[in-house]
Amino acid sequence: MILTITSIILLQMTGCSQGNNKSTGASKHVGGPCEGCEAIFESPIPFKQLKSFDTLPDFNEPGPKMEISGTVYQREGKIPAQDVVIYVYHTDQTGHYTPGPNARGWEKRNGRIRGWMKTDKNGFYRFYTLKPAQYPNTNIPAHIHIVIKEPDKNEYYIDEFLFEGDAFLTASERDRQEKRGGSGIISLRNSSGMLHGTRNIILGLNIAGY
């Protein structure tokens, strides 16, 4: 009896930690293994209430301010995809995934600099943040991780955001990219002290089982 009650309490706690966001059964499983993709369900705002834009926690701190936006398209690449949830996270200005105070769940690994948004009727999304720093003492390009969740499918990752001009974005690194959802390599332009980049995403492109 004690074990049964304990199990129920644990299940309830797990459910509360993910709010009302967790899918109750995607009609199709795609994308292959995706460690940590469940972090998308830790949005502090229910998916139904997400806006098409977000400002990440670091934006008003010292560093190169950046705005990234784009359109998410359905598989044929022409029709905008509405209500696609996007989760992004990246390193801080020291190159680390530093969690915030009282971090819980995947924030302990992904760090505090993360955000959630949902495409509008035009498939549009936008987020504001600082350009991430590279991992210390490595030759890995600076990048932003991204996970998406379509209404009728499970969550899956697509290619990271990478930045043209990065000294570590070599030819071999470019060849290594899978182009999941399309190329994640973007060009940044500076306007009025802010970097701007555009990345359009095609759902299902180079995604296993799509």
* Class by alpha and beta content: alpha/beta
How much of the polypeptide forms β-strand, as a percent range?
15-25%
- Main beta sheet: 6 strands, mixed
Helix percentage: 10-25%
Radius of gyration: 18 Å
Shape descriptor reads globular
pLDDT averaged over residues: 91
Order of helices and strands: HEEEHEEEEEHEEEE
Count, helices: 3
| Alpha carbon gap, first and last residue | 44 Å
Number of strands: 12
Low-confidence stretches: 1-19
Short description:
It is built from 3 helices and 12 strands; from the N terminus they run H-E-E-E-H-E-E-E-E-E-H-E-E-E-E.
Walk me through what this model shows.
By secondary structure, the chain is of the alpha/beta class. Helices cover 12% and strands 24% of the residues. The protein has three helices and twelve strands; from the N terminus they run αβββαβββββαββββ. Strands 1, 2, 5, 10, 11 and 12 form a six-stranded mixed β-sheet that branches. Strands 4-3-6-7 form a four-stranded antiparallel β-sheet, with no helix packed on it. The longest helix is centred in the N-terminal third of the chain and has 16 residues, at 2-17.
Quick tags:
210 residues, alpha/beta, six-stranded mixed β-sheet, four-stranded antiparallel β-sheet, 12% helix, 24% strand
Topology:
Layout: H1 2-17, E1 53-55, E2 65-73, E3 85-89, H2 107-110, E4 114-118, E5 124-130, E6 145-149, E7 155-157, E8 162-163, H3 171-176, E9 185-186, E10 189-191, E11 194-198, E12 201-202
Parallel strand pairs: 1-5, 2-11, 2-12, 8-9
Antiparallel strand pairs: 2-5, 3-4, 3-6, 6-7, 10-11
